[in-house]
Structure formats: structure tokens, C-alpha cells
User: What shape does this take?
Amino acid sequence: MGKTAYIGIGSNLGDAVGEVKRAMEALEALPLSRLEASSSLFRTAPVDAGGDDFINAVVQLSSTYTAHELLTRLQEIEAAAGRERPYRNAPRTLDLDLLLYGDECIDMPTLQVPHPRMTERAFVLIPLLQLDPFVSIPGKGPAHEFVARVSDQRISKISAP
Assistant: This one.
């Protein structure tokens, strides 16, 4: 049913666990898409950001949306959760990132896939590899090869999928 997409989910304002779970429900309800798998929830230290710890997860979707259409749906879910963007890497009620979209490489001002910093973030790599230990990042190689680079980043599993 379409392309396999991986979506990173994060929150560090308000009821962060609840926001991540509600985001998963919203993604599951997306038309033209099917939620295939959800990672565990993880508590992580902010990376290049301030504020409280984040709650993070990754989901796998199968979708017939184009990458740009899917990005629009993700931004609508963020807006419904009260997402504001006062400055780069500001604390957030909800952050949804299109990490991977099939094997596509997209480099446009409004969308970059694979996500340009995903190989630098334990909060992306660990839950992504939980869903697919053999996933490859187009143009970069197997995701597991980047884990050693993020081993100094604090991350702990807080719930099962």
C-alpha cells in the first residue's frame, strides 16, 4: 500500500507522554496510510535544545501520500497539538519529523529526506532500529553503523510499544 515512511515523534512540554501517544493515534487515523509499527517510548536529554527531557518514539507508516502531502498532514497534527515555533529547537508540545520516505532522497527548502540530522540523534536511531534493525538510510548506509556516534547521548526506554 504505498511507500514505507518512518516518522520521529517528540515532545517536552506539558503531558509529553500523552502528546506522543495522541500523535501515534492521529497517525494511525490518517487516511491513505496504515500504521505498521510503533517503537517503545524513550526519555531523552535535549540535543541542541533547552527545556525538559523529551519523550520520543518512531512509527512506521505505509502511505500513498507523496512525501510533501505527508509532511502537510504531520504539520496539521502538530498544529492541532498546539505546536509553536518561536525559535529554532524551542521546547515543543509536539514535533513530528519525516525521517525516511521509502528510498527517496529529497533536498528542498521545505523538506529534506532522509532527515538531515537523524544520524546524529540517539532519540531517532534507537527507536528506528527497534522497528527495523536492518533499516538503511538512503545515501548514507545502514542505520546501525551510526549508533556508536551517539553513544554519549542519554536515552532510556520508559514503555514497551
Notes: The helical segments are 16-28, 67-80, 122-131. Residues 93 and 145 are 31 Å apart (CA to CA).
